[in-house]
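Chain A, query sequence.
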Amino acid sequence: MGGLDDILGGGLTPNRLYLIEGTPGTGKTTLSLGFLLEGARLGEKGLYVTLSETEHELRAVAATHGWSLDALTLVELVAEAGLDPDLEQTLLHPSDVELGETVRGVMDRVDELQPQRVVLDSLSELRLLAQNPLRYRRQILALKHFFSKRNCTVLVLDDRTSGPGDLQLHSIAHGVVTLEQSAIDFGAERRRLRVMKFRGRKFRGGYHDYTIETGGLCVYPRLVPAVRLYEFAPEPVSTGVAALDRLLGGGLVPGANTLLVGPAGVGKTTAAVCCMVAALERGEHAAFFLFDERLPTLLARSAALGMDLTPYLQSGRLTIRQIDPAKLSPGEFAGAVRRAVEEDGAGFVLIDSLNAYMQAMPNDKFLTLQMHELLGYLSARSVVALMILGQHGIMGDLKSDVDLSYLADAVMLLRFFEADGEVRKSISVVKTRTTAHERTIREFCIGLGGVVVGEPLTGFRGVLAGSPEYRGDISAATGPSERERHPIG
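Chain A, predicted structure.
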């Protein structure tokens, strides 16, 4: 699991004992089987000792992931028969034997097989047999010293039935990984892990989302921009529209992010797609994370505006991922962005929209923190990032679900206004951190020729407030021609 290795700073230190704890259903068995199979791939012997599941159940779990456990040795201590040295497996029933005999059975099989990787599942059975904390701790210490002399890397699993205050195993283990799952009011359950302890190595703290997929656990490390700093030239790149470039002070700056804000239907997505097509025409790779709109609708509308995305999708230079926020965790989304940048080489990332993305968050605070990490990461990788934030309402006092303007390097504001009996649109840049932007308000049109940005609106006041007041000649407010302003069917 590359994601977990990344969190641990490279992986597990060999010949140590680690605790994997979590309630039933969090993926402890899946994680440990993946650990043993990775060892088998590297030519290391693996031993799985189970006190609570049968070999048949383990093989059934593996089959759901497309795994074969033939390269591993499975020892079950839950069979109906008693100890039978003539059988290939050592069979002990925990309820019928003393704790010491159970531990001795584990040791005998380790001495017999001499594995490099061992999984003991689970310690809750040993805890019940021990009956008191002192005896339980002594037996675990005995196992730890036994494994340390036989060059074994050991995972011991615990289902946390002892209660949250029992830290007996935490003090003994070299490292502790806690797995958690929670159910939200709507949508799929969420899973996350945390490295509680790892001796002798700096690890990435905090919670990290993960999912259980066919093939094992997919862990999505929290993005930490500071560990990935890259030099980039702050030369602006074109949006594909000269007037919009002038508004932005030259264009979009690599390593900077731009927030497009406005009410529904004002053209935020179309303006962002225009910028993305300009990047694709320059030969760059782009990634589009689509939360709101259906992909067929987006493709049809863009093609009608002269921005056909299909050739770029077919060539592989554009990836569009349709996302259901009810099924996506924040960490999984960050992992998808990271793969798009590092594996697909995307230099342009478009997120549409933050309103839907926010639904994947427990509350607004986490959206802000998540976006802070994500934007910092994209900036460090010299990526042009565009984000869309919809506002409630059409005219007048508009409201946003969350204010992320202070995180943005540039903010483009789109508004409706009325002039000469028509509903028109305006665009302005209210903030940039990287260039000296133009402070005018220009008319913004979506027509047969695509996106058109007209001349500055000098005959109005109150356009941004959504309550414009005519102050001059109406001809001064007319930018594009009537044909350019005419909307697509």
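The longest helix spans residues 364-380. The first strand starts at residue 17 and ends at 22.
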